[in-house]
Design brief:
alpha+beta, 7-stranded antiparallel β-sheet, 6-stranded mixed β-sheet, 15 helices
Length: 587
């Protein structure tokens, strides 16, 4: 009985035969396999038949996983309606970069969050619990730059209300449109905050017209979408915005069951020095307690510590709260769901079985490409230059955004190859890998260990670290451009007619010429034409006027031209002079 996925080496061990015998037999049948190659169900049965060994595929693990997953879903679905209580709304602030999302949150929290952001741009999901006279609100501040589309989408998927922030002096911009679309796809109610009311060019009517053009009709124009004119600088409209959020929350009748097992979504995740693997979790139902066993997609853990956005340690977190937890086996993916299970042992088992299931599924989906197609694909890739990169970032969300942006850089000439991407500081092993792969290391909101920095300098490995994503992307584009060979360009600058040929005992044939067009320079490349046929191309060895060496001769003047290694110059030939320049290619 064999439980896939399994390597050829492991299968040989279970069959108690040498792996080399299996490889040899399969090779004779036209199959080329390696010791650590994963075998699918068909291959396992085939190997067994070849060696007279009856093998059965053990599906018990898959069945246990299916039953367990089903029981978890049933438990979530059968929440006791009698225990439902009101919960705080989760509100996402979304919109175009620099339209004032974080500044509005600052005004609500009376804090200075925007000043701490690199380039004044929010680049992670910030999750904050705000206590107002209208009740508690959990606010998500999402990035506005185009690179963070996936993070904004995650923000839309886990929220109850979305505040679309639009600068009243600029109107709707590309990321505003994207935020509106994401809110509509998530079927989340929208409130529009028309910000920067203190600015001279503030024009709320323009924003209302632009919204109407997008089939979003404001209440002021007889529609059902709430709009609030406000200013993060003067606090104008802040109270009205909070009142509208409270009103919308009442209409939605938001509830949760605090007595059930906690479940929710990972907003962000990273490796923190001294804390290890951490994740920012949004509790969507139930109560999360310190010590709870927690299961993510393929990761697990026991909640060792739990802190709110101000760094205060908590023993429990109720629905709609966002908390940072430690004690995790790995860094979970931002956007994945989590749930509390009975024990850490159960969580580990489920995580491992889920991961094994993914490997099995990937194995089943793997198809063999014929040799001709493989060589065609290889040839296509080989035509392009290759820039290999290792990406390091502080959190998974940023890592995801950077990878997306790198692969979206348009170029027919250079291909980006991301050989590794992970969260954490840049270490010596990263430098070693970069050296072996001839790769560039990209760091975002992270740092290089001192030993790794010295090692990188010794090994000649380039490390680029940035705090703002589009600065990083711009520098990567520069590195891609450097890989391109410069294009040789020839510009004709002059021509001379050969009037007669002189033979010199020391120099050979010298062409007595008259310049008929432009200027002939000694530094030019020369081409000799006899009629319409080019008979020679090379360097000008010397250029003389009378008996003097000169650098150039202008139109109408006579000169002597000695061409390098050309023994067949004839009267009547035309010598054309070209200036060679090398042009930098674009991506």
């Amino acid at each position: 009985s064999v439980r896939p996925p399994i390597t050829l080496k492991e299968l040989a061990s279970q069959m108690k035969i040498k792996a080399s015998e299996i490889i040899e037999k399969l090779f004779k049948q036209g199959f080329s396999v390696t010791l650590n190659e994963m075998l699918d169900d068909t291959s396992i049965i085939l190997v067994g038949d070849e060696f007279g060994c009856q093998i059965t595929i053990d599906r018990s693990q898959e069945e246990r996983l299916r039953v367990t997953e089903k029981s978890i879903k049933e438990e979530i679905a059968s929440t006791d309606n009698g225990m439902l209580v009101s919960r705080a709304p989760v509100v996402a602030f979304m919109g175009h970069v620099d339209h004032g999302k974080t500044s509005l949150i600052d005004a609500i929290r009376k804090s200075k969050l925007a000043a701490a952001e690199a380039g004044a741009i929010t680049q992670h999901i910030g999750a904050f619990r705000c206590h107002t006279k209208h009740g508690d609100i959990t606010i998500l501040d999402t990035p506005g730059h185009e690179a963070f589309s996936a993070i904004r989408s995650r923000g839309a998927d886990v929220t109850d209300i979305i505040v679309i922030v639009i600068a009243g002096d600029e109107g709707i911009m590309p990321q505003t449109d994207e935020a509106i679309r994401q809110a509509q796809e998530a079927h989340v109610p929208i409130i529009v905050a028309i910000n920067k009311a203190d600015k001279p060019g503030f024009n709320p009517d323009l924003v209302l017209r632009q919204l109407a053009d997008r089939s979003i009709l404001a209440e002021a124009w007889g529609g059902d979408v709430i709009t609030v004119s406000c200013s993060a600088t003067t606090n104008q409209g802040i109270e009205e915005l909070l009142e509208m959020l409270a009103l919308q929350s009442e209409i939605l009748q938001l509830v949760a069951d605090p007595t059930t097992r906690a479940r929710g979504t990972v907003l962000e995740s990273e490796i923190q020095k001294g804390l290890g693997n951490t994740a920012t979790l949004l509790i969507q139902n139930g109560t999360l307690r310190r010590g709870d066993a927690i299961l993510f997609e393929h990761e697990y853990g026991r909640v060792k510590t739990m802190r709110d956005e101000r760094g205060r340690h908590l023993t429990k977190a109720l629905p709609s709260m966002a908390v940072e937890v430690t004690g995790l086996s790995e860094v979970p993916s931002a956007g994945c769901e989590f749930i509390v299970v009975g024990s850490e042992k159960e969580a580990r088992k489920l995580a491992e079985e889920r991961l094994a299931g993914v490997k099995r599924e990937n194995l089943r989906k793997t198809t063999t490409t014929d040799l001709q197609s493989f060589f065609l694909q290889h040839a296509e890739k080989k035509e392009k230059k290759l820039l290999s990169v290792i990406v390091k970032a502080d959190v998974k969300g940023s890592l995801e955004a950077i990878e997306t942006m790198l692969l979206k850089i348009p170029s027919d000439k250079v291909r980006i190859n991301i050989i590794s991407s992970s969260v954490g500081v840049i270490s010596e092993s990263d430098v070693e890998w970069a050296k072996a792969s001839n790769a560039l290391i990209l760091g975002f909101h992270t740092r290089t260990e001192p030993a790794a920095e010295d090692y990188a300098k010794k090994q000649g490995v380039k490390v680029l670290i940035h705090e703002v994503i589009y600065h990083l992307i711009d520098e990567v584009k520069e590195e891609m451009t450097k890989l391109l060979d410069k294009v040789r360009q020839e510009n004709e600058v002059g021509s001379a007619q050969v009037k007669m040929v002189f033979r010199s005992s020391s120099h050979g044939l010298i062409a007595g010429c008259q310049v008929i067009d432009g200027i002939i320079k000694r530094s030019n490349i020369a081409k000799v034409f006899r009629g319409n046929t080019k008979v020679w191309e090379g360097d000008i060895n010397s250029l003389k006027r009378h008996q003097d060496d000169v650098r150039e001769v202008s139109k109408g003047l006579e000169c002597g031209i000695l061409l390098s290694n050309f023994k067949d110059i004839q009267a009547g030939d035309v010598i054309k002079a070209f200036e060679v320049t090398y042009i930098t290619q674009t991506l």
